[in-house]
Design brief:
Layout lengths: L21 E6 L6 H13 L2 E7 L10 H12 L7 E6 L3 H8 L3 E5 L3 H17 L4 E5 L10 H9 L10 H7 L7
Parallel strand pairs: 1-2, 1-4, 2-3, 4-5
Length: about 180
């Protein structure tokens, strides 16, 4: 019976301190959608701390500035546990950012097989760059899996209703950017 006791049960073993399990959820978030928000909530249930890493995205032409994207993410994060969720900008390699933050994992939202194929390739490359960081794939709720920032931007630009795809604050930011007649 004594052989089955764990290390924590053995008073002769020194106590070890464990760091909080920190994950990074990165993206352009142009804009932050309800699907993104759902992935954040799911990640918060799995990790002690979460960094929402908003990419500067030099390789993309974004509709919203980095400052605006950080504001949208921060507005959403304000409704979560402030001690556990931070919003930070990042530039460069995600694995370098993870190293700087002391991350244990990267969280990626997967909506479909096309996302999965791309994200598996990225996860494999990230593992080569920083083997200590795991990639965790999370599925948003089924009714949110069809939402992408690209489609939200396009629908909003054409004057469509995006209220079931983004928070009211994000929808308000999208409204003034629709096409002028």
């Amino acid at each position: 019976m004594a052989a089955m006791r764990g290390l924590a049960d053995n008073p002769s073993m020194p106590a070890t301190t464990t760091r909080p399990r920190l994950a990074v959820y990165s993206g352009t978030f142009d804009p932050l959608t309800l699907g993104h928000e759902d992935v954040v909530r799911r990640a918060c249930a799995l990790f002690d701390e979460l960094v929402i890493a908003v990419a500067m995205a030099h390789h993309k032409k974004t509709r919203f500035s980095l400052h605006e994207r950080l504001e949208m993410a921060s507005e959403f994060a304000a409704g979560l546990d402030a001690a556990r969720v931070r919003v930070l900008p990042f530039d460069g390699l995600m694995m370098d950012f993870c190293r700087e933050q002391g991350a244990h994992a990267v969280v990626r939202g997967i909506r479909n097989m096309a996302d999965f194929d791309y994200e598996v390739q990225m996860a494999a490359m990230n593992r080569k760059l920083h083997p200590a960081v795991e990639t965790v794939f999370l599925l948003p709720q089924a009714d949110l899996q069809c939402i992408s920032s690209t489609l939200v931007r396009e629908i909003a630009t054409l004057g469509g209703d995006v209220s079931q795809m983004v928070s009211p604050g994000v929808a308000a930011r999208l409204a003034p950017r629709t096409l002028q007649a």
